[in-house]
Amino acid sequence: MTAIHSRSTPEGFAERTLTNLYQVVTARKSDPDRAHEVTQLANSLLGLIIFPFSEGQFGSEPAPKAAESESVAAWSDADKPVWQVTTNNCTCGQQSTNKTKKNTWKAGTIRCMVYHVRNAAAHGRLKFSGNERELAEVWLCAEDGANKEPFVANWTASIRCDQLLGFCKELAKLVPPTSQ
Ligand SMILES: [Zn+2]
Asked: How far is the CA of 123 from the centre of ligand 1 (A)?
């Protein structure tokens, strides 16, 4: 068995999440009734995005910092998969009198994108385009907004699920290898 990071680290948990996802992809190919890869990818957002970019035990310190200095435009220019943003009125980086405001990173950074995807996933504001079985045939739409009741989206975006997997893998590269 190949050595991997501890399950209790963001890297180790993400590695296991991807391994399980690939198992589901393989399992569906041999028996379509027994595995659902689009669903597994949506479930995997916990290990691939929510945990590494949280402040809890699984939170990565370097990844969110690195994401602040990466721009969505630069990723797109480099043909790295990114979400296609359709509503772009977020307040990331704007001056606020509220000193506890945490989203001080600039709008249009990868940190901004991950923040809104994280919120969408954590609050169930995700929608699939349909019930197709292949990752490359389904789009995932996400929405986020500061106004909760009534909810008003100030950031909406969509991505094809195979590209979402690529986006998550690019995010994982922001975590430098440890000496473990
Ligand atoms: Zn933002």
From this structure: 16
Range(s) of the domain holding residue 20: 10-172
- Rounded mean pLDDT of 141-154? 91
Say what the pTM is: 0.91
Residue 176 CB: number of other CB atoms within 10 A? 10
**Protein residues with C-beta less than 5 angstroms from the ion ligand 1:** 90, 92, 107, 112
- Give the amino acid at 163: Q
DSSP state of 10: H
Predicted local distance difference test score (pLDDT) of residue 177? 58
What's the domain count of the chain? Answer: 1
Does 2 map to a domain? Answer: no
- 153 alpha carbon to ligand 1 midpoint, in Å? 12
Q: How far is the centre of ligand 1, averaged over its atoms, from the C-alpha of 110 (Å)?
A: 9
Query: Do the domain assignments include residue 179?
Result: no
Task: Tell whether 178 is covered by a domain.
Answer: no
